[in-house]
Amino acid sequence: MKKAVILLSGGLDSTTCMAVAKHEGYELYPVSFDYNQRHKRELELAKEVAAYFDAKEHRVFTIQNVGGSALTDPSIDVPEYEGDGEIPITYVPARNVLFLSYALGYAEVIGAEAIFIGVSAVDFSGYPDCRPEFIDAFQQVVNVGTAAGVKGNSIKIETPIINLSKAETIKLGLKYDTPYHLTTSCYNGGEKACGVCDSCVLRLKGFKEAGAEDPVAYV
Ligand code: ZN
Description:
alpha/beta
């Protein structure tokens, strides 16, 4: 059975990627990261999502925090949604470079054919490591920097929602029975989502446009 590593944060986008990979017939090897994010709740939810999809193995890598982001430095407050096109302080320096590097090493070890990452270049917060330019560049890294790549059976970076809006992502996910009740998107964490951070605003807008009910609770 073909294997896929899925970057799983416990959020809406990565959980949708789990559903897509399962639908495409992959055996699932989700990976999550403990990187001093504000809330460990997302890691607990990631475990539940992995179990829901009957993942073969779920690895949680602990990586050193470099700081410099509202999501990893408790002294920096999470801002409310601004949508002004600037890269917000919730950007985590080089996060997807780090995450994909770990996922890549693991993918080589288990002989995975693909790595799924739930980046979107449509409804996103302006993070440079969510754009197609970055994914294409990282694919080059995979091709030239791994034994699998050099031997001609490179690992494919799969981005099933890169061209989808949040609403389109949700519609796709609902088609494949994605357990959105197990996901969290709020940067502020907590039992109930805040409804005002960048991530909550994009999520609520997405569900509304998709004509669906968000199953998670809001303050
Ligand atoms: Zn929020």
